[in-house]
Amino acid sequence: xxxxxxxxxxxxxxxxxxxxxxxxxxxxxxxxxxxxxxxxxxxxxxxxxxxxxxxxxxxxxxxxxxxxxxxxxxxxxxxxxxxxxxxxxxxxxxxxxxxxxxxxxxxxxxxxxxxxxxxxxxxxxxxxxxxxxxxxxxxxxxxxxxxxxxxxxxxxxxxxxxxxxxxxxxxxxxxxxxxxxxxxxxxxxxxxxxxxxxxxxxxxxxxxxxxxxxxxxxxxxxxxxxxxxxxxxxxxxxxxxxxxxxxxxxxxxxxxxxxxxxxxxxxxxxxxxx
Amino acid sequence: xxxxxxxxxxxxxxxxxxxxxxxxxxxxxxxxxxxxxxxxxxxxxxxxxxxxxxxxxxxxxxxxxxxxxxxxxxxxxxxxxxxxxxxxxxxxxxxxxxxxxxxxxxxxxxxxxxxxxxxxxxxxxxxxxxxxxxxxxxxxxxxxxxxxxxxxxxxxxxxxxxxxxxxxxxxxxxxxxxxxxxxxxxxxxxxxxxxxxxxxxxxxxxxxxxxxxxxxxxxxxxxxxxxxxxxxxxxxxxxxxxxxxxxxxxxxxxxxxxxxxxxxxxxxxxxxxx
Lengths: 274, 274
Hints:
Structural class of chain A: alpha/beta
Mean pLDDT of chain A: 92
Number of helices of chain A: 7
Radius of gyration of chain A: 21 Å
Strand content of chain A: 25-35%
Number of strands of chain A: 13
Order of helices and strands of chain A: HEHHEEHEEHEHEEEEHEEE
Oligomer: homodimer
Largest sheet of chain A: 6 strands, mixed
CATH topology of the largest domain in chain A: Rossmann fold
């Protein structure tokens, strides 16, 4: 039985959304629906137009016999700004203040809806940077790395501060913790988890002194890989000179006053690069 | 300008996929596309049919003025069995053997494509169990919890073995580690992260003695919440009596021989319940 255009459009949409950054051939769709390549081409034109108009993303079409389509998650600038504002509104609550000026964020990083938004925003930003892997440090960064990696469709790797026997052999480095105490700490990564020459994106929840990000940078060098960029959810207040400068932060915690229980979160430097 | 049916079908598909287990009203779609509710109803019928035929999931339609549609990720039995077989094939490699009979799994748990499959399979299984939260223990379980929670569209919570200042106040319990050493260990969960009365699904990577799952069970009781089920990726070889019995495992590591470097992974008890 021949598959109708309406059904093809629904299935193509689902298929492309589940395979971001992947070239899917006309031949594949043509066989899947027992339809002529010319019909599939027309389908893809409709999908492309709708994805673009609705801010779902870009459909790149590759012409010719070996051609096909690739879905690239890309958000509209105003949608990204909208989400960053939503994040500010969500964090600007005094109940989120923790002792020491920390901000409670764990609930957000456990909500699929927030993670989808954060993942799409950051993946959008790096869409044409040919990222091979997303890196983060356990535990808080993991959901962010997974969300971003899902939209970039690349693996994510988790750096740990403690070793586990189930990791196999690891490479470890020492780094200076960015906090005022200037402690030397250790972080390590499973040897199998990152290929030489990989182009790596670092993500994390908070940035204070930058020590952790710097540690990951050294680790990337140990693996003969390349750091492409670093993006955090929020840059925290930090008295002193940060040990890194080339990062972007979706948000900036502008002021925290534990005594009067006030907090002010504003959009970070990320939006300046949109 | 009026939106064509073809464009509506694409956008409805995207919207429903991004909002699983959520009732989206006819009114919402009707306004979004400036189209009559009767047209939207027809659209949803086409989406429903295609989702069902392609094994994408169920579209539940709620009739009436306050009606709408809800997308529930549900896979076909044969697709689930196919994925479990793929998982077996992927793990049945001697290079995955680690000292002590452990199996290297970290790469898989860092690949969005595997996580999507695992997430859909487990979320499918619990689709009508009214889960309120997914629980796991740091660090290995986190990607699994996030993948499952994404398809169930509920929050996930991370139990930790070490405390962090950024968690706020926590509830902790002591539990007997299932390993042969029978050590007493501690695990804790941020007080804010789980609501009283929540129906909780536990997920994790490996099950050996069951001590960790049992610890989480005690923690769930501390929060006056309810354990609905526990599912792990693989149940490991265990000499002795397990401290839990009501769990499902996608896979079973049937034999591991470190000397001859052989490993045998077979489908677990999960498939018996499909």
